[in-house]
């Protein structure tokens, strides 16, 4: 082996790849411009058909106002009372959910006074719920329909 075949560390030199050819960078844009020009030429050479506008017939409307008396059905008062009772019941149910949490927390911590207070609140809400007459009102409403 000759000294020209090795590098300074004693390894064989790798053969060098030939230098790449210079690419022509103008070909792609030139093809794009040519295609654009051909497309514009084809598009502009087509004769558009004239647009035909047909006249629509004139519509004449006449408004006649008549007064007609219609009897509107009204919701019976017993049904309105049943709806009001149901709303009160839902409000009390929401209050029960709010009152339960301190009772559960008191039971968790073995707080007897807290459990008694929560029980008193729940009993008051239960009395309020029992005072509602929703079942009877609902039955009367269904009977009036």
Describe this structure in words.
The protein is 57% helix and 0% strand. The radius of gyration is 47 Å and the shape is flat. It has helices at 27-45, 77-108, 112-131, 134-144. The longest helix has 32 residues, at 77-108. It has a domain at 100-145.
Summarize the helices and strands and which ones pair or pack.
Blueprint: H1 27-45, H2 77-108, H3 112-131, H4 134-144
Helix pairs in contact: 2-3, 2-4
Report the average pLDDT across residues. Answer: 82
What oligomeric assembly is this protein in? Answer: single chain
Order of helices and strands: HHHH
Overall 3D shape: flat
Tally of separate helices: 4
Helical fraction equals 55-70%
Poorly predicted residue ranges: none
Strand content: under 5%
Give a short account of the largest sheet: none
Rg for CA atoms? 47 Å
Count of DSSP strands: 0
Q: Please state the structural category.
A: mainly alpha
Calculate the terminal CA-CA distance, rounded to whole Å.
Answer: 116 Å
Summarize the structure.
The protein is mainly alpha-helical and 145 residues long.
What would the keywords be for this entry?
145 residues; 4 helices; mainly alpha; flat
